[in-house]
C-alpha cells in the first residue's frame, strides 16, 4: 500500500472521484502543508493558515500505478490556475501534489512534464514533500456520498 496527497480545489469532489478508481483503497479529506496546528475548516477558509484542501489517497500499487493516478489527477484539475478551481477561489483551493516517499518525486516530475506538453500555459501545481496533514472534520468526510446534490467542480461521471 502506498500513499500520495493530492490537492485539487474543493476536496469533496477530489475524494469522490478517486473513490471510484480501481486500486484506490482509502481516501481521507484534510488540510495539507499549512502553518498552524490542527486547523478547522473555518481557519483554513480564512486564508491565514496557508493550508490546501487535500486528500490522502492510499492505493494498491499492484493494481494502479502512481503514474496512472497522476494522469487521472491532471484531467480533473486546471493545473494552470493559481489558487482557484472552478468557482472556488483562495489559497486553500490551490493544486498540489504532496509526496511522502522521495522515490515518487521522479514519477511526479515526469508526469508533470508530460502533461505540460499538452498545455499552452504553465503548470502552477506545487510539488513538495508533505510537511503536515490534519484530518478535516467528520462532516467533510465522504461529503458527496452524504449529500449527492452537493457542489462539485469535477465531473464525477468520468471516473
Automatic annotation (TrEMBL):
Q: Which SUPFAM superfamilies match?
A: Peptide methionine sulfoxide reductase
Q: Which reaction does it catalyse?
A: [thioredoxin]-disulfide + L-methionine + H2O = L-methionine (S)-S-oxide + [thioredoxin]-dithiol; L-methionyl-[protein] + [thioredoxin]-disulfide + H2O = L-methionyl-(S)-S-oxide-[protein] + [thioredoxin]-dithiol
Gene3D superfamilies for the chain: Peptide methionine sulphoxide reductase MsrA
Q: Which GO terms describe its biological process?
A: cellular response to oxidative stress
Which GO molecular-function terms appear in the entry? L-methionine:thioredoxin-disulfide S-oxidoreductase activity; peptide-methionine (S)-S-oxide reductase activity
Write down the InterPro entries for this protein, in alphabetical order.
Met_Sox_Rdtase_MsrA_dom, Met_Sox_Rdtase_MsrA_sf, MsrA_MetSO_reductase
Residue ranges occupied by any Peptide methionine sulphoxide reductase MsrA domain in the UniProt entry: 4-153
This entry's Enzyme Commission designation comes to: 1.8.4.11
List the active-site residues: 10
Protein keywords: Oxidoreductase
Output the superkingdom of the source species: Bacteria
Name of the top EC class for this enzyme: oxidoreductase
- The keyword Repressor is annotated on this UniProt entry: no
What GO CC terms are in its UniProt record? cytoplasm
- Does Transferase appear among the keywords? no
- UniProt record similarity statement: Belongs to the MsrA Met sulfoxide reductase family.
Its function?
Answer: Has an important function as a repair enzyme for proteins that have been inactivated by oxidation. Catalyzes the reversible oxidation-reduction of methionine sulfoxide in proteins to methionine.
Name of the protein described by the UniProt record: Peptide methionine sulfoxide reductase MsrA
Lineage, top ranks: Bacteria, Bacillati, Bacillota, Clostridia, Eubacteriales
- List the gene name: msrA
